[in-house]
Design brief:
The complex is a heterotrimer of chains A (273), B (340) and C (269). Chain A is mainly alpha-helical. Helices cover 78% and strands 1% of the residues of chain A. Chain A is globular. Helices cover 79% and strands 0% of the residues of chain C. The longest helix of chain C is centred in the first third of the chain and has 34 residues. Chain C starts with a helix and ends with a helix. The chains are: A mainly alpha (273), B alpha/beta (340), C mainly alpha (269).
Chain lengths: 273, 340, 269
């Protein structure tokens, strides 16, 4: 195939992407620099500096995203590792169970947590029945609730690539290490874990980026106590409406996401190499 | 889909209406964006259906309404939507931003209505109250001093995630009477909110949240919209110190003249007490006619925002003050939210 | 490696916890949809089909279903055709800016959805297409492209170039090569990509809420319902969606044949 035919194949999609994706984003980004009747302006960015509250919401978003990402790794790594050791059939079922929620409405899953984790919910009733707690534990309407909800939605994004990397690790390599007398712990930390590290890092960054744009979960499970940038943007777009300010904030968020994505691409290449 | 085909068929089978409207060049179908839910249904039953029966004009509803949507409609210059529902404070803002048009009150020729509802830029069509409510079985507060006193009235609270609700209620809890609330002492209000925020479990954004949270026993006391809790035996409520507010329906800037002619007809229907009584059966909010009380069921008068006994104990939203100070307060509110 | 029984048990516990954590919301929703209660309660106090009756008896839900289906069919097919062509062009071609183009096609997955929503909202408003059907389908197509690229990129890469070259060298035309040689081989992946794009569109809520105007899709209606009133009808909708998803995934598994291939398609990007 020559150069021009290769390009001919991507041309139709490229046209659509430019018209329905790239141009709208550029237009939105440009809005922050534009003022009706006066032309170019930086006032909307200056507005951000004067009212650092918006930047603090961004900071809060980064913090919550970090917490949710850590929770994801804490649950996802052992899960993927366990799945690697399963038999063929069990592994298939496990993959299906990981994939299934991937495709069930975020809304539904988020609301299900209210029933599971509420004061009169399944978990609290079980805890009290077991005598572990006297008063209900406040799982919802705080950062914990948002973290649980976000971790649940994003877990497949971490587990699937991690699992893919883990099944590529040759068992003979681990057996060789064992035959040389290395204790299991040493094998795990010196041989196995380093081999999964690139995929882990890439998956972690992907999850972190996806956390940044979360909208439904903080709105429902945060009880209004967990300000996230998406919800602030919604307010600025729909309620106030200060689109130019929203555009300035979006630009900063986009830059943060793209910088992290650049890191992800580097690690992802390493992981697949 | 099916309804629209039906409407078309019905319109076609009534040629006389076609002649009538052709004479006035008024549109047969206009579009409205309203806030949705039961409130939207009440517009349908109370005003749109009677209009359809009398004139053959169809009003197509879409929801929800937000100021951002209105700005998008106007800036894109599309004349598709004529009517837009806005809160009282938002009408001022929309006027300032040049997003809505003056109403032609002469053409509307309304039946008698309360003066505040007859705004130059909007038709105040629905009174609603924001009040205190609680889960049955807890100690019942009589005013906002007691409502916020978590020592004497133990339990979790659920407050609106909107400063224009929370600040006046917080001020009342420091002893400010309802006729002295405005101009708002913003700093004092935030100081009080900082004292009580530890008792607030949820700051709600959606009107459905507080009743559900009280039912789930996640919170025991709420500040919520009256229409969400009246008539439900699970809740107790009190209008004292509550906020009476008015929702408006405005005309989108740049609407077509023919569409506006049809809109004036709908506004006229909205001013009629008998139509407002129909709407009040769908949702416990009331229209702006002074004659409405007589048409409402006597045993339910206590549920409505504007019945005598309730109107006297509430304060009225001060839209002008919020139009002046809203933006500064919003930023302070975001900062306050970060401190939760 | 995890040789002591204790560590093995600990790992199994952690793994099972992870799976339960993932699936618990689904396991809750299904029984709740058969509950006779007005409020969301678990366990349900009895058995009833009232929420299914409410769902199928409500023309607005039915209209949302048909809107969702139409939008999902159109946008998934558009994304599938354009995305597959592009995936092929990217793998087989070599031209300037190839990496850039690939990154750009994947970016709807990476750019926070709220930003895509806002950008589309503002620019569709500018050109007067806000709330239009064309705008909605175009937006869903763009959002589906990365899903198609993920699956088809792997499929084209794994497809043996030599088979193609043999066909070419035997004098087969390009269209003959595609229809008779490539498509039968790639059909399972094409099907998988289409299903993913379809479900991706059927489940989209953020962008749709911003730009759909009078068009109600199932998730948009669900989100609006939840804001206005917590109504158990949504659990019936959710159960139906879960059922459709399970059937679709089962179909993909069947078509792709071996489990390994499904896993591979799902985990490799």
């Amino acid at each position: 195939m020559n150069r021009s035919t290769g390009f001919a194949f991507i041309a139709p999609l490229l046209v659509l992407m430019v018209v329905a994706f790239n141009l709208p984003i550029i237009y939105m980004l440009g809005l922050a620099f534009w003022d009706k009747g006066r032309g170019f302006t930086l006032e909307h960015y200056e507005g951000l500096l004067e009212a650092p509250v918006y930047l603090r919401v961004l900071g809060n978003t980064l913090r919550i995203s970090l917490i949710a990402t850590i929770a994801n790794v804490a649950i996802g790594y052992p899960l993927a590792h366990w799945m690697r050791g399963l038999g063929r059939r069990a592994r298939l079922i496990a993959i299906a169970l990981v994939v299934l929620p991937f495709w069930v409405s975020i809304l539904v899953r988020t609301y299900a947590w209210i029933v599971v984790l509420g004061n009169g919910g399944l978990v609290n009733r079980s805890l009290q029945w077991l005598g572990l707690t006297d008063a209900p534990v406040q799982f919802l309407y705080n950062e914990l609730g948002v973290t649980i909800g976000m971790a649940n939605v994003l877990l497949p994004f971490l587990v699937l690539p991690l699992f893919a990397a883990m099944i590529r690790i040759d068992d003979r390599l681990l057996q060789a290490a064992a035959s040389l007398g290395a204790p299991p712990r040493t094998i795990f930390w010196k041989v196995y874990f380093p081999l999964t590290l690139p995929a882990l890092a890439a998956g972690t960054l992907l999850v972190f980026i996806l956390c940044l744009g979360f909208y439904v979960t903080p709105a429902v499970l945060g009880g209004g106590r967990v300000p996230m940038i998406s919800n602030l943007l919604d307010t600025l777009i729909n309620q106030i409406p200060r689109w130019e300010q929203a555009s300035a904030i979006s630009t900063i968020l986009l830059i943060v996401a793209l910088v992290i994505f650049a890191g992800y691409r580097r690690l992802d290449r390493k992981a697949s190499a | 889909m099916r309804r629209r085909t039906f409407v078309k068929a019905a319109a076609a089978s009534l040629p006389s209406f076609g002649i009538l409207s052709a004479a006035q060049a008024q549109s047969k179908e206009i579009r409205m964006i309203e806030s949705g839910g039961l409130s939207g249904d009440s517009i349908q039953v109370g005003y749109i259906d009677p209009l359809k029966a009398k004139t053959g004009i169809t009003v197509v509803r879409e929801s929800p309404s937000s100021l951002g949507k209105l700005r998008a409609l106007v800036e894109s210059g599309q004349g598709g939507t004529t009517l837009f529902e806005l809160g009282s404070g938002i009408v001022q803002q929309a006027k300032k931003l040049g997003l809505i048009e003056k109403l032609d009150w002469a053409a509307i020729n309304p039946a008698p209505m309360f003066p505040e509802a007859k705004n130059e830029y909007g038709f105040g069509y629905q009174y609603f109250s924001t009040i205190m409510a609680w889960r049955k079985g807890v100690k019942e507060p009589k005013n906002f001093i007691e409502f916020f006193d978590s020592k004497a009235f133990p339990g979790k609270r659920c407050l609106p995630d909107f400063p224009h609700y929370c600040l006046p209620f917080a001020l009342q809890s420091t002893g400010v009477p309802i006729d002295k609330l405005f101009p708002l002492d913003v700093d004092a209000a935030f100081k009080r909110l900082n004292e009580i925020k530890k008792d607030v479990a949820v700051w709600w954004k959606a009107g459905a949240q507080p009743p559900q949270l009280m039912k789930d026993n996640e919170v025991q006391y709420s500040i919520c919209w009256s229409g969400r809790v009246v008539g439900d035996p699970a809740f107790g409520l009190n209008f004292a110190g509550g906020k009476a507010d008015l929702s408006y329906i405005a005309v989108v800037k740049g609407s077509k003249p023919d569409d506006k002619l049809a809109a004036w007809k709908l506004y006229h229907e909205m001013s009629l007490a008998e139509n407002q009584a129909k709407a009040a059966q769908v949702i416990s909010y009331t229209g702006p006619s002074p004659d409405l009380d007589a048409l409402l069921p006597k045993d339910k008068l206590w549920q409505y925002p504007t019945s005598k006994q309730n109107k006297d104990v509430q304060y009225f939203e001060n839209a002008e003050w919020w139009a002046e100070n809203g933006e500064a307060v919003n930023k302070k509110w975001e900062a306050f939210k970060l401190s939760l | 490696m995890t040789s002591t029984p204790w560590s093995r048990r600990l790992l199994a516990a952690a793994g099972i916890f992870g799976l339960v954590f993932l699936t618990v919301p689904l396991l809750i929703v299904i029984p709740m949809s058969f509950s006779p209660a007005r409020a969301l309660t678990f366990p349900p106090p009895g058995f009833s089909l009232r929420w299914y009756q409410a769902l199928f008896g409500d023309p607005r839900w039915m209209e949302a279903m048909s809107t969702s289906t139409i939008v999902a069919v159109l946008s998934s097919v558009a994304a599938l055709v354009l995305g597959s062509l592009a995936a092929y062009g990217l793998r087989r071609g070599s031209f300037a800016g190839r990496d850039w183009a690939e990154g750009n096609f994947m970016s709807p997955l990476i750019v926070p959805t709220i930003i895509v929503a806002i950008a589309l909202y503002l620019s569709l408003a500018k050109v007067g297409l806000l709330g239009s059907f064309v705008g909605l389908v175009a937006a869903h197509t763009v959002l589906n492209v990365p899903l198609v690229m993920m699956v088809m990129g792997v499929a084209v890469r794994d497809f043996d170039l030599r088979i193609e070259q043999v066909a070419w060298s035997l004098g087969a035309s390009w269209s003959y090569t595609v229809i008779k040689v490539m498509l039968p081989n790639l059909a399972p992946s094409v099907f998988a990509a289409w299903i993913f794009a379809f479900i991706g569109s059927f489940d989209e809520v953020i962008v749709t809420s911003f730009i759909a105007g009078k068009y109600e899709t199932v998730p948009k209606k669900m989100f609006n319902e939840l804001i206005l009133e917590v109504n158990p009808t949504i659990t019936a909708v959710a159960t139906l969606l879960i059922a459709v998803t399970v059937l679709a995934l089962a179909a993909v598994t069947l078509v792709l044949g071996r489990a390994g291939k499904l896993g591979q398609t799902l985990v490799e990007r």
